Amino acid sequence: MATYTNEERAAALQLYREHGATHAARTIGCSRQQVYRWLREEMSRHTPPQKGEIEAEQRYQQALRMYGRRRWLEVSIRMLDRTLEEAKDFRGPDLTPVTWDEPPGREAQSLVTTAAIAWDKYRLEMGESTFRTERAEGGIDRELRKTIDEWRRQLGSHDDV
Q: Is pLDDT at 24 greater than 90 in this prediction?
């Protein structure tokens, strides 16, 4: 059985943290299991975090979550705003610029879908329900029918939808 110096053990654990157990084992010339044994030994020597450290970590994570919530909300609003902005694309072999007053259909759909997902993630992070059921009889069908009727009205046709 090979004997390894404290420096080799420390180097193996550093390599493990940076590149994983396989890389550490190959570089030091030991087995991956040995690297994991050294890791367990090192972890057993550490004292558990104190109450103050735990509270500090909780405050830090809470601050990160608050920041994340804000970012989800900002992304949602930004995507919705982009559906009302001028859109530009490049078409053809010579990459001719094409501009629209608003994003064309698929791009607008992607923006709204992204906004809805970000909004949903924001609500989920806030602890709100992200699943809505219609309790009223035929509620979903009624809403769908209203949407289709509105599209027909806007299109001026009753046969296309």
A: yes
